[in-house]
Design brief:
Layout lengths: L6 E6 L2 H12 L2 E6 L6 E7 L6 E7 L14 E6 L2 H10 L3 E5 L4 E5 L5 E6 L2
Parallel strand pairs: 1-4, 5-8
Antiparallel strand pairs: 2-3, 3-4, 6-7, 7-8
Length: about 120
């Protein structure tokens, strides 16, 4: 028996802003979009080219209240090849939410409040 972790879903209110955030902040690319013809909802799958892991952005037309994507303790994590360069990009964009220099990591937050841990490679 074997299982493979393929994606994580997060709910979004502003699909375009969130898609642009993940493209610029972490280099994810849209792999595919699915949903009904009436456009009432969509699932945008963003691919991490380095690992193939996907982040599913679920958008529902008319939903305006903030989503609870697991609370402040729930997060996804990315290991980056140039920690200082990513830190500077994220600082310039105002995306850093919390830093923990003692542990050598920090958190950024996407437009819908999804926390993302940034770790140095290795």
């Amino acid at each position: 028996m074997q299982a493979r972790f393929v994606h994580r879903c997060t709910h979004v209110n502003d699909l375009e802003a969130t898609r642009e955030f993940y493209e610029k902040a972490l280099g994810l690319v849209v792999d595919h979009v699915s949903g009904p013809a009436d456009g009432s909802w969509s699932n945008t799958f963003m691919n991490d080219p380095a690992t193939g892991f996907q982040l599913e952005l679920t958008w529902n037309r008319g939903h305006t209240e903030p989503y609870d994507n697991g609370g402040m303790d729930t997060h996804i994590a990315f290991e980056v090849d140039d920690f200082d360069a990513y830190h500077e990009l994220h600082r310039q964009m105002g995306w850093i939410q919390k830093e923990n220099p003692a542990m050598g990591l920090y958190f950024i937050v996407d437009p819908d409040g999804q926390r993302i841990e940034i770790l140095p490679q290795g």
